[in-house]
Amino acid sequence: MATKPSNHNLNVFKKPLALFSQSPMTGFYRDGYCRSGPEDQGNHAVAGVLTKEFLDFSASRGNNLRSIGLEPGCKWCLCTARWKEAMEAAKAADDPVVPKVFLHATHDSALENGVTMDALKKFAAEPEAPGGGGSLERKAPISPNTKGGMATETH
Predict the structure, then answer these.
(1) Which long-range contacts (CB under 8 A, 24 or more apart) does 84-90 make?
(2) Phi, psi for 67 (deg, rounded to 5)
(3) Whose CA is closest to 126, among 101, 99, 96, 97?
(4) Which residues are CB-contacts of 31 (< 8 A; sequence separation ≥ 6)?
(5) CB-based burial label for 130 (10 Å; 0-12, 13-18, 19+)
(6) Residue whose C-alpha is closest to residue 98's, from 110, 109, 85
(7) Is the N-terminal amide bond of 72 cis, ω within 30° of 0?
(8) What DSSP string describes 26-77?
(9) Tens of pLDDT along the chain (155 residues)?
(10) Distance CA 36, CA 43 (A)
(11) Cβ-proximal residues to 73 (8 Å cutoff; 6+ apart), any chain
């Protein structure tokens, strides 16, 4: 089953997961949300903005995201482990190898896969708002009827 009930699609603030990007259409399920489920072995839960440095880094690790048309500035649901690798490889807090993260669109499963809330906040793309607000294209919680095609790895 490709979808989970909406009450399981929470962001890292335990609020409804925000829509991240429909252009390009992102997410493991290609529905615009950085949600993860049992089919998603890579845990595509981190909502990040791609940089040239991250694209180079990912390609050097065997996952060339440019091959599917991605470029710097694209919003993309990243594998939690790859984002963490980039963070650990960063030479400074402002190293562009680490994509900035939209916390309101980052699925809470990222916190269960080796990334801390402090690390995510350190690389947050938008200012934090009380109550888990945020400034994305549009906020829409996932409904149980949401369907989309599953992503395929490029490596």
Answers:
(1) 84/114, 84/115, 84/119, 85/57, 85/61, 86/54, 86/57, 86/58, 87/115, 87/119, 87/123, 89/57
(2) -65, -15
(3) 101
(4) 25, 142, 146, 147, 148
(5) exposed
(6) 85
(7) no
(8) -TTTTSS-B---TT-TT-EEEEEE--HHHHHHHHHTT--GGGGT--TT-EEE
(9) 344 445 579 999 999 999 999 999 999 999 999 999 999 999 999 999 999 999 999 999 999 999 999 999 999 999 999 999 999 999 988 899 999 999 999 999 999 999 999 999 999 986 654 444 444 444 444 433 334 444 444 43
(10) 6
(11) 49, 50
Side chain identity, residue 79:
C
> Is the CA virtual torsion 1, 144, 84, 151 positive or negative?
positive
Could you tell me the pTM of the whole model? Answer: 0.80
Tokens 């991605």 sit at which residue? 70
Tokens 């906040």 identify what position? 121
Rounded Cα distance between 107 and 16, Å, is: 9
| Number of neighbouring beta carbons within 10 Å of residue 49 | 18
